[in-house]
Amino acid sequence: MNPVGLKFDGKVIDELSSTIPSNIFALNELTKNAYDAFSDTVQINIDTVNSQLIIKDDGLGMGESEVKKLFHIASSTKRYGSKKTHDGKTRYVQGSKGLGFLSVFKFGHRVTWESFHGGNKIEFTVDKNKLISKNNASRFKVTPTLIKEEGKGTKITVALEDEALDNLNNYFIEEKNTSKAVNAFFDPSFKIKLETLNGESETRDFNDFLDEAIDKQFCKVSYSSVDSRLKFYREGKLVKETTFKISSGLYRAELDLLIYHLEGGRGKNISKLFYREPDELLSPLLFINNNLFNNYVIFDSNINRSAKSGKSMPQMTGYVRVYSSHKEIEFNSDRTNFVESNLTNKILTDIAALNKKIQSIASELKDQDKENFGRVITGRASPVSGFEQSLEQGVPQVAKINLKNSLPKRFQIPSSQLDLLAFISTVTDSSGRLVSNSEIKIEIDGEEASSIIPSTNEECIKKVDYKYYDNQTGEVIERLNLNFFTPRGLVSGAEKSKKQLFTLASNKSYNVRIPVVAQLINQSSELYKSKVDYSEIIACGLRTIFELSIDEVKSKYPKIFEHNKANSTKYKKSSSLTWDTVQVIHFITSHNDLMRIISESIGLGFHSLKNLIDFEGYVVSTNKAQLGAHKSIKCLSPDDLKSLAQRAGHFAIFCDVLIYKIPESKITSFNHVQIT
User: Fold this and answer.
1) Contacts of 554 (CB under 8 A, 6+ apart)
2) Closest Cα to residue 303, out of 287, 321, 284?
């Protein structure tokens, strides 16, 4: 394939990609390309071990002409909002102006594309550093390789720098960020999967929100501008219906909401998908042409608060969707608001008026409750579908225990307590009626248990069985497997290794900078995954990591090592390596301020760090390190080697933090606490 070049100053790429506001926005731009390519699924993987961000879809891919268009920024042939159909699927075009190409450089400088189309595979790499060095970008040429190979979709691989990798991992620790990333499209034909250090997340069913915090639900609201009908449901029944007409036929609006009555704050068991920025109050999501629009002003759940509090019902979740193919639907540069036009002004006015009307009617229903019952009635608001006909005919149906797909099934240890009833969506008996959770029996690993799982500190898989006995059809069992795991960050040296021998029990990775120790970590990792067994060399290297880390701390802070071993009853007969290691560990654990700094540096909770730094564990490890170095691998099993590497890696990090991350004045100000 012939070389392909850009059309303008390469520095524009750097300027534009750096102004892309957030990780969510940048990832959304990349998934839009997959959506426009009629992909069914797009997989996003933050590969910490290899320091890569990978976006892979199963769509139509790019041919030669599409690759050329990729480089023509702001000159896309796509028209936003137009409808296209392929293989029975109709979608609104999302991409335009080449923002997908720009967004990828938000994460890294070196990016590789691999795409299959028409029996060919096209592959090419762009280095932004080389590109922005060109005053005239047309001089920058990319020569894609084109070979005959069958395949499907496009794969984008971004080489991540340490800071970018840490930023992404830290960003996706937050459930609200993860949930928004995988639920960026309101389209059941398109799924997004995200793999991070915390595990895997994927697009949830759009009806799942109807099953959240059922005991606190006040009403369900639906609206479509097609028939202008605004409907209110309570306890599964339609209780109010009215009309609302929008002011323009150039757009369509659809709305599905749940309004809650929450006394004393936010309700439990409501997905963080509906937490808005920056105050984290509940709010519906807004979708424009099926794509998530990061804006909480257009449909502001607090819109009536400033007027009359009695007409305000702001505690709501759900989806507000606007559809239009008109050319006046445009967005500002960071995609947080509309560009002003006659059409967008009408949309803003209509949505605000609809919002006010919904809250006003819901408030009236709430006042009726208080007048008639002296309290607000709550409970499942939406109708349970699927059983109406069988109810009329009196034919028994399958009794079901439905579990929520949206809740995580993997939890890092130490975990919080878990309420197992929160995983239940609905339970229906053979007549189609809802069954109370109080009638469900729970077994964990075959033994009857309560609905609360205590905090878990050990890696395990708990098999949870939900059981219900239906009088007509018999016993119903639904199983849920909960995986409790230790997060695995990566301990690396100055040049990040792609091999994972040294792991960190944290969501973050850490780059050790102590001279020689950094190289030893990388080289030992490479040898560990080699096809040749280098266990003896690795064993010697692990002891050396302890020794060199100690030497570096000793040269800067000799005060730490002023303890007299003869005064210690416990460690009097220990080796010099063990004694020096104990002195470092003792110094760290004697000062909580120091522990907090280390805790923040490696992304581990204070109490988890305390459990990690135990004297006896390091005494055993240093003894094994010496045996491994002196008597070869005969004294170390493969498990010993892996465990020792983890201890050595952690110890190198502790020393590295002492040397590079804490002011010298702070270290010297700490008191000298005697080892007993």
Assistant:
1) 560, 561, 580
2) 284
Count CB neighbours of 71 within 10 A: 18
Length of the chain measured in residues: 676
Contact 231, 224 (CB under 8 A): no
C-alpha 536/C-alpha 88 separation (Å) is 60
Q: Do residues 511 and 493 make contact, with C-beta atoms less than 8 angstroms apart?
A: yes
Q: At what angle do helices 535-556 and 517-528 cross, to 10 degrees?
A: 160
Three-state DSSP class for residue 133: coil
Average pLDDT over every residue of 32-43: 94
The rounded distance, in Å, linking the Cα atoms of 480 and 502 is 32
**Among 439, 481, 207, 191, which Cα is nearest to 319's?**
207
Distance from C-alpha of 188 to C-alpha of 195, rounded to nearest angstrom: 20
The single-letter DSSP state of residue 311 is: G
Candidate from 378-382, 390-394, 650-654, 667-671 with smallest mean pLDDT: 390-394
Rounded-to-integer distance, Cα 456 and Cα 414, Å: 6
Q: Residue 427: beta bridge partners?
A: 401
Q: Is 386 left (phi over 0), alpha (psi -120 to 50) or beta?
A: left
Query: Which H or E run includes 115?
Result: strand 110-117
| Residue type present at position 319 | Y
Half-sphere exposure of 257 (CA within 13 A, CB side): 30
Q: Across residues 126-147, what is the average pLDDT?
A: 76
CA 173 to the chain's CA centroid: 6
Global pTM reads: 0.63
Q: What is the pLDDT of residues 76-85, one digit of tens each?
A: 556 788 999 9
* Mean predicted lDDT score pLDDT of the chain: 84
Q: Cα torsion at 211, 185, 107, 17 (round to 10°)?
A: -140
Strand ranges inside 205-357, DSSP E: 217-224, 229-234, 237-243, 252-260, 285-288, 291-293, 316-323
